[in-house]
Amino acid sequence: MTTMVPAKAEPLAKELFGARKLPAAAAPAAYGFYSKGCLAGGIAIAPDGAHWQAMRLSRNRRWGHPDLIRLIERLSREAAQDGWPGLLVGDISQPRGGPMLSGHASHQIGLDADIWFTPMPNKRMSVAEREQVSAVSMLKGNTLYVDDRKWTRAHEAVLRRAAKYPEVERILVHPGIKKKLCDTVRGDRSWLHKIRPFWGHHYHFHVRIACPKGSTGCKPQDPTPRSEGCDDSLAWWFTEEPWRPSEGPEKPKARDVMTMAALPNACRAVLEAPAPPSEAAVTLAGPEGLPAQATRSAPALAGAADPASLLLSLQPADIPLPSPRPYR
């Protein structure tokens, strides 16, 4: 009698991408959609900058498309001019994007970033503090409405600044925060259409940029309506329907069942691509580009202007072209 050997289950994509500690050394490109894709040529934002501190460092989610990382650095500087003390940067993406081991459904192609509504303190937090300190909700108790004791004009200003960048496609906030803006913003309100209400997002705001030029494999999201969004579409969030528990058994989250077969074909090559020489070599420390230690760690590449161009400066002999490998 023949004994049947059960087929080996295909590994989950979140386990494969979650295991990569450094990005794919390739031309920067986003593949797929925000909630189903991967990232090539990603760079990291440094744990500390003049106007930012990165949080939850143990997650290794400081990575993104160079366009997004540069935008965060720019926002940190320009928001300071508006009176914002500095950014506390939450999750961006994993080094090669892809589904995460926990948390987000999106953040897979290096074009999403979470910024805390809690302003940066006037001291540099320790690594332990960055793991333990909690963001502060902007809501009043167990309600859908903003607590006026916490909300300031500086919160409005940092959202306005981010929304006015042409690269920013939308910003997700709690419906109560959207309503607060609808009720209080004076003067130019043209940017409000980018502020989109969504579940959660009362501790942080979620910045999403559009597919970058050259990322032909990136699938764009439908554009936001041109109206301010302070109409019946917002009123719906203050009815019972959006908060009603779903009926029947809870479906598994997409990240918990997603295999490589669900992702764009290019993601296999991204996963198998070689890594850059070090994390420091592909970390943005400020508007000047590479930190000094990155240049020292990779002297042959010291002429690169920033981490993204550093990756592109590698010669084919240094980094072989990756080839997709089938998963069985």
Can you give a write-up of this model?
There is one protein chain. Helices cover 22% and strands 14% of the residues. The chain is built from 9 helices and 12 strands. The protein has a 4-stranded mixed β-sheet, with helices on one face. Strands 6-3-12 form a 3-stranded mixed β-sheet. A 3-stranded mixed β-sheet has the order 4-5-7, with helices on one face. Strand 9, helix 5 (175-184) and strand 10 (195-197) form a beta-alpha-beta unit. It is globular, with a radius of gyration of 21 Å. The model is unreliable at 290-305 and 313-328 (pLDDT under 50). It holds the Pfam family Peptidase_M74.
Blueprint (SSEs and pairs):
Elements: H1 13-18, E1 29-33, E2 36-40, E3 43-45, E4 48-49, E5 52-54, E6 63-64, H2 66-81, E7 87-89, E8 112-116, H3 127-132, H4 153-163, E9 168-173, H5 175-184, E10 195-197, E11 204-209, H6 232-235, H7 266-272, E12 283-284, H8 292-297, H9 307-313
Parallel strand pairs: 3-12, 5-7, 9-10
Antiparallel strand pairs: 1-2, 3-6, 4-5, 8-11, 9-11
Q: Gyration radius, to the nearest Å?
A: 21 Å
Mean pLDDT: 87
Q: Provide the β-strand percentage band.
A: 5-15%
List unreliable stretches of 5+ residues: 290-305, 313-328
Total number of beta strands: 12
Query: Which strand order does the major sheet show?
Result: 8-11-9-10
| Name of the CATH class | Alpha Beta
| Domains, number | 1
What do we call the CATH topology?
Answer: Muramoyl-pentapeptide Carboxypeptidase, domain 2
Distance between the termini: 26 Å
Helical proportion, percent range: 10-25%
Enzyme class: hydrolase
Pfam families: Peptidase_M74
Region (Disordered): 280-304
GO molecular function, one term: hydrolase activity
